[in-house]
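Researcher: Sequence of Crotonase follows. Predict its structure.
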Amino acid sequence: MINLTISEGVAEIVLDAPKKLNSLDEGALDALDAAYQEAEAAGVRALLLRGEGKGFCAGRDISHVVPATDDALGYLQDKVTPLMRRMAAFPAPTFAAVQGACLGVGLGLAIATDVVYVAENAKIGSPFAALGATLDSGGHALFVERLGAHRTLDLIYTADLMSGAEAVTAGLFSRAVPADELLDFTRGKAAVAAAGATLAFRESKALVAAVRDQRIGLWASLEAENHAQGRLCDSADYSEGFAAFQQKRKPVFHGR
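Model: Prediction complete. C-alpha cells:
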C-alpha cells in the first residue's frame, strides 16, 4: 500500500507494507508512480519518502515470483526505471528517511531521491548472491562511483551489508541519524526546503544532475550556473531574497 499526505507544501509518501518490509510488486510500483504524479500536480515544494515499520524497502516482492516464467527485464525496465526517472525529475527538493533494509529496488528509490538521511542501523548493500541475481536499480553506478570497483565487488560477492553509519562515512548518502530521531529530523529538513526558494533549488538540482550524468566539467558547469543565475533574476523569490538581506530581515519565499 502507498499512502500520500500533503501538508504545508510538503508531500509525504509512505510505503506501507511493514510485514514484508515494504517490498514492492508491480502494482505497488504503479501506485508509487501515481503518488509522485499527484504530488507534482499539487505543486508541493518538497517531498518526503519513507517506509512504515522496521524497514525502508527490502526491494522487489518476490514472494510469488516463479523463476521459470519471471519477466525480470519487464519489471525493471518497464516499471522500476520509469519510476526512478520520475522521482529524480520531481520539480522540488525530495528527501528520503531510510531505516532498516534498503536493498535492491529500495536502494534504487534512495538513489533517485535528492537527499537521503539514514538511520545509523540501516542495512545497505547487495543481498543477491543467495538468489543467483545481480545488483540492480542503479546500485552498480552508485557503489562504483562512491566506493570504487574493489569495494563494490566485495559487497556483491559476499552479500555483506553496510550499516547506515558506514554508508554515510563511505559517502553513499547524506547523514546518519539515530533511528528514533530519523523521521522527525527528515520532516524538519523537508519543511525548511519547502519554505525556501523553489526555483533556485530546481536550478541547482538540474546542475547537479548534469555534472553527475553528463560529466560536464568546471567551465561548462560555470557557464550553466551563469545562465541559471540570469534566469533567477526575474523571479519573485530572487527579489525577496535581496530585499530581505538589505533590510536585515528573514526572507519569505513563495517558490516563484
